[in-house]
Write a structure and sequence with these properties.
Layout: E1 11-12, H1 25-33, H2 48-65, E2 72-75, H3 78-90, E3 96-100, H4 105-116, E4 120-124, H5 134-140, E5 145-149, H6 163-172, E6 176-180, H7 192-195, E7 199-203, E8 214-218, H8 244-283, E9 287-289, E10 300-305, H9 310-315, E11 320-321, H10 336-340, H11 345-349, E12 351-355, H12 362-377
Helix pairs in contact: 1-8, 2-8, 3-4, 8-12
Length: 383
């Protein structure tokens, strides 16, 4: 018999959907919502501190990415950064764009809009682990390819793509390369030069910053057509008064990540693997891993438990806050990501995503494993 577990507050295992603010971030943000509230474009004194905050945050994020501050363009979110990258790189140009089947909707829906405007879009398949084949990309590239957009790590399975290899292929064909790194910035040590990317998307709330702020890394010399026109902020690439408080918060989160990302990664691998072991030990062959067994995020465990439905399973365990996949499709049992990986309907419907964060403890992992095991072994039980 599996012992009953009493949990007084929900165990948060949905860090891929959003993260709590890193300690200290809120106090940084409050300053620019209250005391230093001015417009950073104002010439008078009230604009000085906000303008300085933008410069500081740009430098903090650039350090995290291994970039130059001048290569950072602040946006309203990661989805906007993706839109600017894809639309800005292909605007008023004839040619084709290559992406892959398990991208975030922010990329796939932008590709759909671009296709309606005449851009030819080639969507590459993935294998059973969610990986793109370098051979498939090489075969798809032509002299007319404008841009290749392949996400760094998948938000549902955590599978990490071989970005450096893929970017090199794109450059050999004369194309630009963009990666949606919303799930890896602040979680994996990374450097834009090592990845070889021209454009890289950041979402503040995925690594301890606030929601409603993001950024696009734009390699020096890469020209983009702006999507939002107006007063010329952000070097004319993203007009509109900047969200100073949000940007300052993202910068503070980036500064914290620079100091802690490597340590956090090692700790989270150990906790993720402990969770996997405990579930596998209790459930045996009923437990199936979704995603690549090694090339995946340190914090992400996506599994299917045979003879269950993921959404129903989680609904019976209110002590755990987790999801069945992307937060943009929460509650749906039909994951386009898992379908693209060739997964059958029953296994896809049984999938749950358990994503850890810096605040996750070993006690929480052991409690979560017991709760999930009890619910899976006793399908009529309620948490």
């Amino acid at each position: 018999m599996t012992p009953e577990v009493t949990v007084t507050s929900p165990i948060y295992l949905d860090h891929n959907a959003t993260t709590p603010l890193t300690p200290g971030v809120l106090s940084v943000m409050t300053r620019y919502l209250a005391t230093d509230f001015g417009n950073p474009s104002s010439a008078h004194g009230y604009g000085h501190a906000p303008k300085d905050a933008l410069a500081t945050s740009r430098a903090q994020l650039a350090e995290l990415l291994g970039a130059q501050p001048t290569e950072i363009v602040f946006t309203g979110c990661g989805s906007e950064a993706n839109t600017l990258a894809l639309t800005g790189a292909t605007a008023a140009r004839a040619g084709n764009l290559i992406t892959q089947a398990t991208e975030h909707p922010a990329v796939l829906e932008t590709c759909r809009a671009l296709a309606a405007r005449g851009i030819r879009v080639n969507v590459l398949p993935v294998d059973e682990h969610g990986l793109v084949s370098a051979n498939d990309l090489a075969a798809a590239l032509t002299k007319d390819t404008l841009l290749v957009s392949i996400m760094h790590a998948n938000n549902e399975t955590g599978t990490v793509q071989p970005i450096a290899e893929l970017a090199n292929l794109a450059h050999e064909a004369g194309a630009l390369f963009h990666t949606d790194a919303a799930q890896t910035v602040g979680k994996l040590p990374l450097c834009v030069d090592d990845l070889g990317v021209d454009l890289l998307t950041v979402a503040g709330h995925k690594f301890g910053g606030p929601k409603g702020v993001g950024a696009l890394y734009v390699r020096s010399g890469v020209e983009l057509t702006p999507v939002i026109h107006g007063g010329g902020q952000e070097r004319g690439l993203r007009s509109g008064t900047e969200n100073v408080a949000g940007i300052a918060g993202m910068g503070a989160a980036a500064e914290h990540a620079v100091k802690n990302v490597a340590t956090n990664q090692c700790r989270l691998v150990a906790l993720r693997d402990l969770l996997h072991y405990l579930l596998a030990d209790a459930l045996g062959e009923r437990l199936m891993l979704n995603g690549h067994p090694t090339h995946r995020l340190a914090n992400t465990l996506n599994v299917s438990i045979a003879a269950t439905a993921g959404a129903q399973l989680l609904s019976r365990i209110p002590q755990i806050a987790a999801s069945t996949g992307s937060a943009c499709h929460d509650g749906s049992i039909n994951s386009p990501v898992l379908a693209a990986m060739g997964m059958d309907a029953d296994r896809a419907a049984a999938a749950i995503r358990l994503s850890l964060g810096p605040s996750t403890t070993e006690d929480q992992i052991r409690s979560a494993a017991s709760l999930l095991t009890a619910a899976a072994l006793n399908p009529r039980s309620h948490g």
